[in-house]
Structures
1.
Amino acid sequence: DSGVTQTPKHLITATGQRVTLRCSPRSGDLSVYWYQQSLDQGLQFLIQYYNGEERAKGNILERFSAQQFPDLHSELNLSSLELGDSALYFCASSVRGNDLANEKLFFGSGTQLSVL
Amino acid sequence: GIQVEQSPPDLILQEGANSTLRCNFSDSVNNLQWFHQNPWGQLINLFYIPSGTKQNGRLSATTVATERYSLLYISSSQTTDSGVYFCAVEQGNFNKFYFGSGTKLNVKP
């Protein structure tokens, strides 16, 4: 168990709908990262938050948004869903302090999103 | 962004065999990690190794930062080693980890 909790584990929805994925980082970790894993694209970095603030953005679509709350949990919102959004969405966390030593990423078990 | 290439893409081993997986990256990095994605999809952090050599049981990893590559060694492979192995790198303090496309390992009994 990595200590990173993601809910739900599975999500089935229809095109055009909106869903929210939730992530609770490991205790003490300030940074949360979101990744999308699809068969043809591998693991794609979406966005990162540190202590409530957005720190880095990757290949995140405008239909997607995220935030990190004061208790450090994070939510990824996916709207106007398309068939191509079907993928495994991972959240990861790290301490992300000033000392970069041992800045390991720890991943949750993922949310499998199926858009029908 | 930085390019990360892993080889081989696929590897089939007989139980007990040894293997070497390679990760090449196109620019200098300050953070490199190896992950194992098991058949159930879980991503497990194996090593944080921006440079040097580390060992953990039957697994070891070496990163030669000046030559921009890292190697993951698996000795006496077991069926539970099956899955996909990814390396991920980060440049500077940009907070973006770039993943390679992975090496899919199948260890047969």
2.
Amino acid sequence: AQSVSQHNHHVILSEAASLELGCNYSYGGTVNLFWYVQYPGQHLQLLLKYFSGDPLVKGIKGFEAEFIKSKFSFNLRKPSVQWSDTAEYFCAVNARIGGFKTIFGAGTRLFVKA
Amino acid sequence: ETGVTQSPTHLIKTRGQQVTLRCSSQSGHNTVSWYQQALGQGPQFIFQYYREEENGRGNFPPRFSGLQFPNYSSELNVNALELDDSALYLCASSFDRSNEKLFFGSGTQLSVL
């Protein structure tokens, strides 16, 4: 079955530290990949997405993610985090398997210390 | 704001009852997906509707059913409620069924006692 694994459930960083959140998926076919973010008190919103082309995609607020097909991975990175990046981050995979499905990982809670 | 509204925001039911949750999609969106999010977990895909037809379903029993109306608003119905159905239920709309970008509502918090 299609699934998404996020390696870290909780991450605590100081401001200006670098961030990398791991994401692996299990599906051998063509997939679209996403990172969604939920800031405190807000809706889930799209951070960035990969559909095709350059495997290094850039999103809002300085985030980027790299699709490595051979590793079934789509890790999220940011060179220097800010206090305002405190949020929960969800990796998601969309594929056509018996209909269209967008499957989410369990999420990673990031807390950035000022 | 995403333009996706859900009602009610909170609901308390007892085991065995039935519940209907509602979602109004963003204007111009013909696809709606429903998710269940238990505490500390990611959203679990229930099903997706595209132009009033179900076109994708997750691992949820048949007592979870849905409808999408001609105006693309949607309902999630759950029969024979169980304690484990207590969760946040999220509705997400998208421009089309490829789900290039999901727009989420703020959810309905369901508690089953």
